[in-house]
Write a structure and sequence with these properties.
By secondary structure, the protein is α/β, with parallel strands linked by helices. It has 13 helices and 12 strands. The strands form 2 sheets. Strands 5-4-6-7-1-8-12-11-9-10 form a 10-stranded mixed sheet, with helices on both faces. A two-stranded antiparallel ribbon has the order 2-3. 56% of the residues are buried.
Length: 405
């Protein structure tokens, strides 16, 4: 397989701070809602900022209370999102289990089931010996993969991408590589991230969290809002999807990735590495910048990130940046780290499916570079392709180009 048209998407699902499925989340995004509120799932006493975007854990039907108590928060976000994606793709049987006994996984995360590891440490410090082995064994990412396989009834190889905030986009790109190389016909791709003390307190100590509103691409931006969630896609070769009679809902037309060595946390201020990733994705897709109608930006609302992105976008769309609509949905659901790339890919695909564009909320004084292109309520998609980009600590830059079925 080597054609850019070979990789298709037949289903997607998500759990976000705005809703426990795609439909609920999408309606809230288009309405301009924000999930910002007080964090209650982890202790945040003593932090400079104590709010963010917390998800409500969906019910897991058919699972005993004892088993639910053993699942990490990450697994409780991931399982329903994966189930929705698989149901959407028509690969669940009447018992809610995979119709394929073997199903490859390409997964992204950064914190895994970290709350189990944190609980283990708290118990050690308080000399509480109960359930120590269970807690320490259930926080690594391979446990969440095991949970997905157990509850959704499949097995097979898995790949975990933990490449900071570009992880989700990288997991999607890795799945496309697997499919194009002929190593698999269908791959379940997903990202998940649960709020935890380590990450929240770390960002708070860096003073990277905005104590008020997250304002991507705004002159008065002061920092990000942390969130949590999960999103999954079912990706296939077009031949496999057609053979099983699946409805093709979208296509991954292009993927680009670059890594720079500018700084461990700050992006290259010129935006050049991100620009190169976008150009590579467009080249693989065989598309011009003028054919992109919507761009879901990384848009963390930090000074350095938004500035670098704006410069990159201005150069990529130099012949008419006003023709593309841009928004960062992190203002609504927060920065979900390892889940960001997959959640935002779902939003890009929903934009293609519905023709609706999520508006940029909270940016009342847009930076000059993007003042003419930030998405407004009611904006509609008028071009054949959409773009989603993500940047990660360590200089990772990823870009995904999607086209409609």
């Amino acid at each position: 397989m080597n054609s850019r048209e070979d990789v298709v998407i037949t289903g997607w699902g998500c759990v976000s701070p705005l809703g426990d499925d795609v439909a609920t989340t999408w309606v809230s995004l288009l309405r301009g809602d924000s999930a910002r509120g007080e964090i209650t799932c982890i202790p945040v006493e003593g932090c400079r900022v104590t709010n963010g975007a917390q998800a409500t854990l969906p019910e897991l039907t058919g699972v005993s209370k004892k088993e639910i108590s053993r699942l990490s928060r990450a697994s409780r976000l991931a399982i329903p999102a994966a189930r929705e994606a698989m149901a959407d793709a028509g690969i669940l049987n009447s018992k809610g289990l995979s119709v394929f006994s073997r199903l490859e996984l390409s997964i992204s995360t950064t914190a895994c089931g970290m709350e189990h590891g944190e609980s283990f440490l708290h118990d050690i410090w308080s000399r509480n010996p109960r359930h120590l082995a269970s807690k320490i064994s259930r926080y690594p990412a391979h446990q969440q993969i095991g949970d997905l396989q157990q509850h959704l009834g499949f097995s097979g190889p898995s790949m975990i991408v933990s490449n900071a905030c570009a992880s989700g986009a990288n997991a999607i790109g890795h799945a496309a590589d697997i499919l194009r190389a002929g190593f698999a016909d269908i791959v379940l791709v997903g990202g998940y991230e649960a709020l935890c003390e380590l990450v929240f307190c770390g960002f708070d100590s860096l003073q990277a969290l905005d104590p008020h509103l997250c304002k991507p691409f705004d002159l008065h931006r002061r920092g990000l809002m942390l969130g949590e969630g999960a999103a999954f896609l079912v990706m296939e070769t077009s031949a496999h999807a057609n053979k099983r009679g699946a409805k093709i809902k979208g296509r991954l037309a292009g993927y680009g990735h670059t890594t720079d060595t500018h700084h461990i946390t700050q992006p290259d201020p010129t935006g050049a590495p991100l620009e190169k990733a976008i150009q590579r994705a467009l080249l693989q897709a065989g598309l011009k910048p003028s054919e992109i109608g919507y761009l879901n930006a990384h848009g963390t609302a930090t000074i350095f990130n938004d500035g670098a992105e704006a410069l990159a976008f201005a150069r990529v769309f130099s012949e008419g940046i006003g023709g593309v609509r841009i928004s960062s949905t992190k203002a609504a659901i927060g920065h979900t780290l390892g889940a960001a790339g997959t959640l935002e890919a779902v939003f890009a695909l929903e934009c293609l499916r519905t023709g609706d564009i999520p508006p940029q909320i909270n940016s009342t004084h847009p930076i000059p570079e993007l003042a003419t292109c930030l998405a407004q309520p009611g904006d509609k998609l008028t071009k054949p392709a959409v773009l989603s980009v993500n940047l990660g600590f360590g200089g990772s830059n990823a870009a995904l180009v999607f086209t409609a079925a």
